Amino acid sequence: MMRRFALLVLVACGGTDPGSSPDASDTLDVTTGSVTMLVTERGVPVVGLPVFFRDADTARLSMTGELGSVGLDLDAGGSVTVLQPRSRYGTDQLSTFAEVEAGDVLHLDLDPLGPPTIEVAIAIPAATGAAGYQLHTSCGGPFGVAPGPAQTFALEGCNSGTVDLLVLAYDDDSNLVASLFSGSRSLTAPITVAGTYTPYVATMDNTLAYTNVDFSFLGVYQAIVSSGRRVYESTRGDSLEPGVTEKTFAIEQPGVTGATMLYSTTPFPHPEAFDEQVVLEHQPAGPYSLDLRGALLTPYTSLGAFEIAARRLVWTEAAGGSRADLVRAGIRVSRRDLPAWTWQIVAPRVADPVVTFPELPVLASRDLNPQVGDIVTVTELTNVDFPVAYAAELRANAFADLHRIIERGPGRMVIQRRYVVEPSL
Predict the structure, then answer these.
(1) How far is 101 from 118, CA to CA, in rounded Å?
(2) How far apart are CA 151 and CA 132, in angstroms?
(3) pLDDT by residue (tens digit) across 102-146?
(4) Which pLDDT tens digit goes with each residue over 292-314?
(5) What is the pTM of this model?
(6) How many Å apart are CA 245 and CA 215, to the nearest integer?
(7) CA neighbours within 13 Å on the CB side: how many for 261?
(8) How far apart, in Å, are the Cα atoms of 254 and each of 165, 200, 232, 265, 316?
(9) What is the 3-state secondary structure (H, E, C) of 106-148?
């Protein structure tokens, strides 16, 4: 039987939109408090979305106001759930931030805004013996470019007002022969890259050495990071014979003053595996080495299942416990008398392999809590080991692109997802 609790229904400044409110019978009022929920769509505030604030004894329903935000006083350990109602989005979609704390400003971007674009004229010098050139930038690329008069390029994501440039020169056989780096160039005027090219020799290749490898295929990615932005990227991959436990890659690494390196390592799972993982590491420039098996999180031994009575998603893992900091999970619920809906949640990882969904208030026309008889399908089960503590900033943006976190500074992050093998036809 569903536990009863007090239900207070409130609304943020800006009034209500009857077409987007959960039910016409729900009375709403103005709110502000210690935990704030901000909802945007392509960077624009979303007005009139229902938001459930839940702590141990009270569930309160509010709505986002003119700024796309709403706040309430909430005890530590409570949860905040945003409802995208089917009247506006075609399907009811729930998003929950669990175990929130006072002072949290949570952000849900329903459709992330793409990076801004700016057109910039860039001129490069000629390199001796070069037959072709590529321009790599911290705001996109690579672009084909020729020495001489300036050419115009559309750069994306130059939020700092500057751009780092790396020109690569190639011979007739497409071999890299020289590079020229120019950092922190202002975007307010045409850019002329000047200086002397650095000849490239094979001894400048960067070495990525892996041990404790027992996978059939290994994919690696390397990026040169300058001013916190990727300026040059390259990938490699290779199959591994049974019994091989070590693998080394040599990847071109043009010189970039003051640069750091970002690495991503993806082992291809065995067919019987239940998870797939990627190891991301940001470190000073230089050779890279990794004990791959030792870096991975504890493997899943099941794909997970939702227990309706306990309102929780559970899965099993190999022995040893997990060092993950966060769990991001999702379910799809089907009920005979209602259109199906989805529910995603982000929560701190606890010792046991489980994440518990909050009990939501029952709306006048529908109960979005899974019930006995519903068909509940697990759609996501992601564990993440962060390089920093899972605190307010990470909690606030836990539904955003997790890969961007590693660009901010040195450290290692591991992302673990379910591995579902597509059935053969």
Answers:
(1) 39
(2) 15
(3) 999 999 999 776 778 899 999 999 999 999 999 999 999 999 999
(4) 999 999 999 999 999 999 999 99
(5) 0.87
(6) 8
(7) 21
(8) 12, 7, 9, 20, 44
(9) EEEECCCCCCCEEEEEEECCCCCCCCEEEEEECCEEEEEECCC
